[in-house]
Amino acid sequence: MAMRTFGRHSILVRSASVLLASFFLAGALTIAATILVTGERQHKAATQHLEQLLDTVESTVSVACFVKDAQLADEVALGLLKNQEVLSVVIEADGADLVQRSQPGAPSGTATADYPHLSRDVYSPFNPGKRIGRIQVAANARAIQRATYDEVRFVILQTLGQLGLVALAVIAVMLIFIVRPIKAMSDGLHHLDATRGERLAVPTNHGDTEIGRLVQDINNLAGDLADTLGQERRLRLAKEVEERKYHSIFENAETGIFIAAQDGILNSWNPAFARLLGIPANSDFQGVLNIRQLAWENTSRVVELGLNARLDNVGVSDDLAIRPRGGNRR
């Protein structure tokens, strides 16, 4: 489960998902634009082709209409129908149909009126200003649609192939130049022991890149951490030495030494103080005895000294007499 979660959140998977989504969106927009542009271009190309066909047979149709030769007009119509883009042909002479021809299976007569068509007036070969007939060509919309579909399908496949190759190339580049070095850094960090002087290795060919600088920064931080830990260890050892010296002085001093809180509770005292005041050892009654409970001859003076030291935040001193039980005044 952890591996699956890591995979979903890896740089490669997330980057590839964004790239594929971007390419899919770009491909969809490209395909939509291709369908529109290709359809319009095919329609214009079909119209231009029909115009060129009419230009080619115009003189022959003019002769056929002038002499009212149905056989010649029929040959012209059959020649035009050899083009799949032509659905039907109607040639008129002096207002009467000279010939009507259409593709096999196509509607005949006025049923082709709903299809896109071109018509051109026919003039006399000897008097260009005299109209003697008309030729009408209906476009084969299905053939034009099939041609448009074939071209659109080719463009779609070409576009998808190009986008797929670009996506694979980008993902491969990311995997080789970004994901692998970062994964190597991550694996190295998991096993890195900075205190032992271990450092991350700079990935190959990334000495001067952002990844290389990141590795150098991590190594510098690891070095600073190791130095800080070493300094902290040295300070701790020095503190332990000083504490041992202090305890040695505190325990072996002939002068009575004690530490008291603000409320007068004795936190610590040395053996000399215990012998002087006739109290138990520090380890037995630490935090229990109050300085006012000791055998002072003038307890109020002790309280006063403590109060003055606390209020003025200065050291105070005085000679105080003690009178242990059953002992002499000292």
Observed structural traits:
single chain, 330 residues, alpha+beta, Beta-Lactamase, 3 domains, 4-stranded antiparallel β-sheet, two-stranded antiparallel sheet, 8 helices, 12% strand, disordered N terminus
Write up what this structure looks like.
By secondary structure, this protein is an alpha+beta fold. It has three domains: 10-157, 2-Layer Sandwich (Beta-Lactamase); 168-228, no CATH class; 253-312. The chain contains eight helices and six strands; from the N terminus they run H-H-H-E-E-E-E-H-H-E-E-H-H-H. It has helices at 2-8, 11-67, 70-81, 141-190, 210-252, 271-277, 282-285, 299-312; strands at 86-93, 96-102, 117-123, 131-139, 258-260, 266-269. Helix 2 (11-67) runs antiparallel to helix 3. It starts with a helix and ends in an 18-residue tail after the last helix. The model is unreliable at 1-6 and 109-114 (pLDDT under 50).
